[in-house]
Amino acid sequence: xxxxxxxxxxxxxxxxxxxxxxxxxxxxxxxxxxxxxxxxxxxxxxxxxxxxxxxxxxxxxxxxxxxx
Length: 68
Hints:
Keywords: Membrane, Transmembrane, Transmembrane helix. Helices cover 91% and strands 0% of the residues.
Protein backbone atom coordinates (compact mmCIF):
# COMPACT_ATOMS: atom_id res chain seq x y z
CA UNK A 1 0.00 0.00 0.00
CA UNK A 2 2.69 2.64 0.80
CA UNK A 3 4.38 1.96 -2.56
CA UNK A 4 1.16 2.82 -4.41
CA UNK A 5 1.58 6.20 -6.17
CA UNK A 6 -2.03 7.23 -5.54
CA UNK A 7 -1.63 6.49 -1.83
CA UNK A 8 1.47 8.70 -1.72
CA UNK A 9 -0.42 11.51 -3.49
CA UNK A 10 -3.25 11.18 -0.96
CA UNK A 11 -0.76 11.41 1.90
CA UNK A 12 0.84 14.51 0.37
CA UNK A 13 -2.57 16.14 0.01
CA UNK A 14 -3.40 15.43 3.65
CA UNK A 15 -0.03 16.82 4.76
CA UNK A 16 -0.65 19.94 2.65
CA UNK A 17 -3.99 20.47 4.40
CA UNK A 18 -2.30 20.09 7.79
CA UNK A 19 0.42 22.59 6.88
CA UNK A 20 -2.05 25.22 5.69
CA UNK A 21 -4.16 24.63 8.81
CA UNK A 22 -1.16 25.07 11.12
CA UNK A 23 -0.11 28.24 9.28
CA UNK A 24 -3.62 29.63 9.63
CA UNK A 25 -3.86 28.74 13.30
CA UNK A 26 -0.42 30.19 13.96
CA UNK A 27 -1.35 33.43 12.25
CA UNK A 28 -4.63 33.59 14.13
CA UNK A 29 -2.93 32.95 17.47
CA UNK A 30 -0.24 35.53 16.78
CA UNK A 31 -2.67 38.11 15.45
CA UNK A 32 -1.18 41.32 14.14
CA UNK A 33 -0.44 42.33 10.58
CA UNK A 34 0.20 38.79 9.29
CA UNK A 35 -3.24 37.66 10.41
CA UNK A 36 -4.96 40.71 8.90
CA UNK A 37 -3.17 40.27 5.60
CA UNK A 38 -3.28 36.50 5.14
CA UNK A 39 -6.09 34.95 7.22
CA UNK A 40 -8.73 34.88 4.47
CA UNK A 41 -6.26 33.67 1.87
CA UNK A 42 -5.08 30.83 4.13
CA UNK A 43 -8.68 29.85 4.85
CA UNK A 44 -9.42 29.67 1.11
CA UNK A 45 -6.30 27.60 0.47
CA UNK A 46 -7.24 25.23 3.30
CA UNK A 47 -10.72 24.71 1.90
CA UNK A 48 -9.37 24.09 -1.60
CA UNK A 49 -6.70 21.70 -0.27
CA UNK A 50 -9.30 19.83 1.78
CA UNK A 51 -11.58 19.50 -1.24
CA UNK A 52 -8.76 18.08 -3.33
CA UNK A 53 -7.70 15.74 -0.52
CA UNK A 54 -11.25 14.41 -0.08
CA UNK A 55 -11.58 13.84 -3.84
CA UNK A 56 -8.28 11.97 -3.88
CA UNK A 57 -9.28 9.84 -0.89
CA UNK A 58 -12.59 8.96 -2.55
CA UNK A 59 -10.79 8.14 -5.81
CA UNK A 60 -8.33 5.93 -3.94
CA UNK A 61 -11.14 4.05 -2.19
CA UNK A 62 -13.11 3.67 -5.42
CA UNK A 63 -10.15 2.43 -7.43
CA UNK A 64 -8.93 0.02 -4.74
CA UNK A 65 -12.39 -1.42 -4.19
CA UNK A 66 -12.85 -1.87 -7.93
CA UNK A 67 -9.40 -3.49 -8.33
CA UNK A 68 -9.81 -5.83 -5.37
